[in-house]
Design goal:
With 221 residues, the chain is α/β, with parallel strands linked by helices. The chain folds into 2 domains: 93 residues, Winged helix-like DNA-binding domain superfamily/Winged helix DNA-binding domain (Arc Repressor Mutant, subunit A), CATH 1.10.10.10; 93 residues, Trna Endonuclease, Chain: A, domain 1 (3-Layer(aba) Sandwich), CATH 3.40.1350.10. The chain has 8 helices and 7 strands. Strands 3-4-5-6-7 form a 5-stranded mixed β-sheet, sandwiched between helices. Helix 1 packs across helix 2, helix 1 crosses helix 4 and helix 4 packs antiparallel against helix 6. The chain starts with a helix and ends in a 9-residue tail after the last strand.
């Protein structure tokens, strides 16, 4: 259906938040909510609610945090982001536009996949204190790539960096700042990096700071 196609393309090309997808698809919240319910039941996407806890009645509906929508398969996200919107040209054998669009958005597309794999990795490395919840955190000001809880009640927050540069101490400083702004009391910080870490950051590694690199993902195989 054109409506479903429009929504799925909007989700694939946006930040995943419901209000962004509805705006991109030019539909009302009522129409969007009904379509999302059906798409979730079909197993194409899944809906995740924000873990933001409102602590004051002053935080009214105007401050409500949007839910996020995720494709159940990276391929589906790739299809509705790059193939479906440009299918006419691809069918005619013209691949220039889709290649250009992918190159311009490759980093954003890859970052989410890396983040989701990192969340799965977190579930495997804390064997002494089982992870009972692991996803991401977002509110209207802050986003955290990793937000997890252990069986003993410890809170783990983290950031994922899929870049070609080593992660520096400033990343940890920013992660702690975001965590504080979100009013989250973290017990353990985790940084996942494609290219490793600076010596200054590695010197801080310990019980309260875990540094994970590409080699760490072997545990998922």
């Amino acid at each position: 259906m054109p409506l479903y196609h429009s929504i799925l393309s909007a989700i694939a090309q946006g930040d995943g938040r419901t209000h962004t997808a509805y705006r991109r698809a030019n539909i009302s919240q009522e129409v969007g909510d009904k379509a999302i319910e059906e798409l979730c039941s079909l197993g194409i996407i899944r809906l995740e609610k924000s873990k933001k806890i409102f602590t004051s009645w002053a935080e009214d509906d105007a401050r409500k945090v949007s839910n996020k929508l995720y494709f159940t398969s990276p391929f589906l996200r790739f299809w509705f982001a790059f193939i479906s919107p440009l299918f006419k040209g691809i069918k005619e054998g013209d691949y220039k536009e889709v290649q250009k669009k992918f190159l311009n958005n490759e980093a954003e597309f890859t970052n989410l996949v890396f983040q989701q794999l990192s969340q799965e990795l977190i579930k495997t490395i804390f064997s002494d204190d089982k992870i009972i919840e692991c996803s991401s955190y977002w509110d209207n000001e802050v986003e955290l790539d990793i937000y997890a809880k252990t069986a003993s009640g410890k809170i783990i927050v983290g950031v994922c960096k899929y870049t070609n540069a080593k992660v520096k101490k400033s990343t940890l400083t920013k992660l702690k700042e975001n965590t504080q702004n979100a009013k989250i009391k973290a017990d353990i910080f985790v940084i996942v990096s494609k290219k490793g870490f600076s010596n200054e950051l590695k010197a801080l590694k310990g019980e309260n700071l875990k540094l994970l690199n590409i080699k760490s993902f072997k545990s998922l195989l």
